[in-house]
Design goal:
2 helices; 61% helix; 0% strand
Length: 69
């Protein structure tokens, strides 16, 4: 199934979960702002994944529709 942006939903989900793992590792690496950066990006990725899951059950004209951006 394709998303509104033309990419396969499964491929997008796989990409974001892969990216999330990288940010979880970043949190563990000592650095000036690694903890804060990792936490923020994990939160953003989680929100995006939640929207993707919710949009599977909504119509194309839902609040997350690409047409309304």
């Amino acid at each position: 199934m394709k998303n509104n942006n033309g990419y396969d939903v499964k491929a997008q989900h796989k990409f974001f979960t892969h990216l999330r793992r990288h940010f979880k590792k970043l949190i563990l690496i000592p650095g000036l702002n690694n903890l804060e950066i990792g936490k923020v990006f994990i939160t953003l990725i989680d929100e995006g994944l939640k929207i993707m899951r919710n949009s599977k059950t909504k119509s194309p004209n839902s609040e997350f529709s690409h047409d309304k951006l």
